[in-house]
Design brief:
The chain has about 200 residues and is mainly alpha-helical. It has one domain. It is built from 4 helices and no strands. The longest helix has about 140 residues.
């Protein structure tokens, strides 16, 4: 047995698969697997155990990574939703504030416009009244002047007719003519009153 194990300690898998090894009887084929299992079985089982453990470790780490990534994505999604909602709220508030400011400005502008229109209407009314009163005053003054001029013309015409009649019925001298011309001048200046005209 000792010589057999010492001989087996010098074998390798390549030795069993070499093409120039001595021919082995067919009944020794089953012994090859046993020998291989004796030589490499423990090592292969150790490798398999290590591979199984490594696979399990990789699966656990992969699951952990997936879970961590999922949590981070969930946290990121929650954060983005909150930021979007906050941004939407700010935009909505600013829009409402601008709308309210626009409404106030529009109302203020409307009030100013209505106030200006009212003042313009009042000014038009005052101008129309003043124009009407001025026109009536001018017409009244013009009528008064026309009446006064007509009266003066009638008085002068009557005086001239009277003096011409006096000249036809009697002699006149220079003093009477001077008096007549003086009286005519005074009447033209409005300083002479015809006797009996005041009554």
């Amino acid at each position: 047995m000792t010589s057999t194990h010492e001989h087996e300690g010098h074998l390798s898998p390549d030795d069993f698969q070499s093409g120039d090894r001595p021919a082995v009887p067919a009944q020794a084929g089953g012994n090859v697997d046993k020998i291989r299992d004796i030589l490499f079985g423990a090592q292969m089982r150790d490798y398999e155990t290590r591979f199984v453990r490594l696979e399990e470790s990789l699966l656990r780490e992969s699951a952990d990574l997936r879970e961590t990534a999922r949590k981070r994505f969930d946290a990121l999604e929650t954060y983005l939703k909150q930021e979007l909602e906050a941004l939407h709220s700010r935009v909505k508030a600013e829009r409402e504030e601008r709308s309210e400011t626009h409404r106030h400005a529009a109302n203020h502008t409307k009030e100013i416009h209505e106030s200006l229109l009212a003042k313009i209407r009042d000014l038009d009314d005052q101008t129309s009244r003043a124009h009407h009163e001025l026109r009536n005053g001018i017409l009244a003054h013009s009528k008064h002047l026309n009446d006064e001029i007509s009266r003066k013309q009638e008085e002068i015409s009557a005086l001239l007719e009277k003096r011409f009649q006096e000249l036809r019925h009697g002699k006149t001298d220079r003093s009477a003519l001077a008096a007549m011309l003086s009286e005519l001048s005074l009447r033209l200046n409005g300083e002479f009153q015809v006797p009996g005209a005041e009554s």
